[in-house]
Amino acid sequence: MIFIYIIVAIFLLIGLLLLDFSLGKKNHRKNVRFLDFESTTGDYQIYTSGDPLFEDLFQDLRHAKKKIDMMFFIIKTDEISRELLEILKQKAEEGLQVRLLLDRIGSYRINSKVIKELNQSGVEFAFSEKPKFPYFFYRSQRRNHRKITIIDGDVGYIGGFNVGREYLGKDAELGKWRDYHLRLLGDIVQHLQSTFFDDWYLATGHHDEEPVPTETEGEKWIEIAATDGVQLEDVFESLICQAKEEIFIGTPYFIPSERLFKCLTDALERGVNVKVIVPMKADHPLVKEAGLPYMMRLIDAGGEVYMFDQGFYHAKVVIVDQQLCDIGTANFDRRSLFLNKEVNTIIHNPRFVMDLRLAFLRDVQDSQPLNDHLIQLFTIRTKIKIGIARFFRPLL
């Protein structure tokens, strides 16, 4: 009898979680916020590893004169994280306005002691997307995955790197960390600033005056796409459907919607070359197994899938026809498409796209092609996990 009660309780709990998720999703879609930005001017520097990125970021922070606005999904409490927090405290003590916004679950290691020390130094701190009732389960899954830094309103950083020792390649299990991040200058930084302002308002209730728009002469080749679990599928579809020659996708998790997967197979039928890079290793349970059926179907349709095996691959890029690309915080998975807040840059600059394309092709050289031989090596355990992962795709 006790066993029956336990089974009933489990099914009841699952039912309540599904109801919470369904109602929360409906409420989210009804109240979604749209941030609409036009293409503008800017200049860039691209990073593909953590050491030069953090060296330049920390130098820019130390040279800040007026204010620092920073938002990350994950900041930890290890050595690199402590160094960053110390810089922020020092700049606040110098009299600068310093604001730090972190995702509540992604940065769970930042405890009350750390926050108190930040506040005592003058750093304004807030957590983004705190899970709360109603729809607690849904809100716990919906994360702010954005990673933005704006310094003096002039310098902006955006990309896939969080803050922690693994992003410097110091995690023995994951190894070298491969990711893409941008340092931006010019008018585009104002759009990053507006994105931060909106998230800061939602977390604190404080309104900031929008930066005064400037119109620098030059080619308007870069655009911010700030998505909120609704618009990203449209962004990716628009990019893929434009392709005439090639589509290169780099992502740590390849779990596309059926709509986007059809866009890719339609592109293959048009004769477009489709290449996808994913990591050989997985950093979360079931994400690799959830993506394998899509990878195998893509290969059957004529696409190419490569598994990066020189460390962990965390890049988030879509490159189209050597003319256009998307680079930022969004993965090619259900969580980024339908749950998370993300921010990407859409870039129409052939010179930049060529630089990014060359970096992508270098990563192909550091990868193994997923082919029939590798698929035949899948163990029974892997096949069972593939079956289990199907049930969790909406959360992956």
Walk me through the structure.
Helix 7 (232-242) runs parallel beside helix 8 (258-269) and helix 9 crosses helix 13. The relative contact order is 0.14. The strands form 3 sheets. An 8-stranded mixed sheet has the order 9-16-15-14-10-11-12-17, sandwiched between helices. It has helices at 2-30, 50-62, 79-93, 112-121, 136-141, 188-204, 232-242, 258-269, 287-300, 334-338, 350-365, 372-376, 380-392, and strands at 43-47, 67-72, 97-103, 124-128, 148-151, 155-159, 177-178, 181-185, 222-228, 246-250, 273-279, 304-308, 312-313, 317-320, 324-328, 341-347, 367-369. It is 42% helix and 21% strand. The chain has 2 domains: 36-204, Endonuclease, Chain A, CATH 3.30.870; 221-396, Endonuclease Chain A (Endonuclease, Chain A, 2-Layer Sandwich), CATH 3.30.870.10. Strand 10, helix 8 (258-269) and strand 11 (273-279) form a beta-alpha-beta unit. With 396 residues, it is an alpha/beta fold. The mean pLDDT is 92.
Write the layout of secondary structure elements.
Layout: H1 2-30, E1 43-47, H2 50-62, E2 67-72, H3 79-93, E3 97-103, H4 112-121, E4 124-128, H5 136-141, E5 148-151, E6 155-159, E7 177-178, E8 181-185, H6 188-204, E9 222-228, H7 232-242, E10 246-250, H8 258-269, E11 273-279, H9 287-300, E12 304-308, E13 312-313, E14 317-320, E15 324-328, H10 334-338, E16 341-347, H11 350-365, E17 367-369, H12 372-376, H13 380-392
Helix pairs in contact: 7-8, 9-13
Q: Can you count the helices?
A: 13
Please outline the major beta sheet: 8 strands, mixed
**How would you state the average pLDDT, rounded?**
92
**Topology pattern, helix = H, strand = E:** HEHEHEHEHEEEEHEHEHEHEEEEHEHEHH
The CATH architecture designation of the largest domain is 2-Layer Sandwich
Oligomer: single chain
Strand order of the largest sheet: 9-16-15-14-10-11-12-17
